[in-house]
Design goal:
By secondary structure, the protein is of the alpha+beta class. It has one domain: Arc Repressor Mutant, subunit A. It has helices at residues 25-33, 40-50, 59-71, 94-117, and strands spanning 2-3, 9-10, 38-39, 75-82, 85-92. Strands 3-5-4 form a three-stranded antiparallel β-sheet. Strands 1-2 form a two-stranded antiparallel ribbon. β1 and β2 form a beta hairpin. α2 packs across α3. The longest helix has 24 residues, at 94-117. It is globular. The relative contact order is 0.13. This is Transcriptional regulator, PadR family. InterPro entries: Metal_resp_DNA-bind_regulator, Tscrpt_reg_PadR_N, WH-like_DNA-bd_sf, WH_DNA-bd_sf. It comes from Micromonospora rhizosphaerae.
């Protein structure tokens, strides 16, 4: 914990090394879009908010990934005008929802294995 200027405790945000995101960025973006359509900056804000600031990704990381996911058919986009400004809203496709479900299963297995190796809990056994 660290203290802010008002004397309140703030959560400690450890620096996120970019290589830790490799292989997980697509799943994170799909998960953020699962509740419904969002424009690119809202995706960045949702990642930041849902991770308590740990995932504060630059636009140069997020927008190319969104375009790649769209080319792969996992998300689609529509243009809307909001307050006189054109915005592109991204949403999951059925293929994107299926990919997210698969990535969640992969993550559950991977994170359990890593946590076990790091000594936080025992590997689950099947009875």
């Amino acid at each position: 914990m660290r203290w802010d200027t008002t004397g309140k405790k703030e959560p400690q945000v450890l620096p996120m090394r970019p290589e830790l995101l490799k292989g997980h960025l697509d799943a994170l973006l799909l998960a953020v879009l699962e509740p419904g359509p969002q424009h690119g900056y809202a995706v960045i804000e949702a990642l930041r908010a849902s991770s308590d600031g740990a995932l504060d990704l630059p636009t140069g990381t997020v927008y190319p990934a969104l375009h790649r996911l769209e080319r792969a058919g996992l998300i689609a986009s529509d243009w809307h005008t909001v307050g006189g400004r054109r915005r592109r809203a991204y949403h999951l496709t059925p293929a994107g929802q299926a990919a997210l479900s698969e990535q969640r299963a992969v993550w559950d297995h991977f994170s359990t294995a890593v946590t076990t190796v790091l000594g936080r809990r025992a590997w689950p056994t099947t009875a």
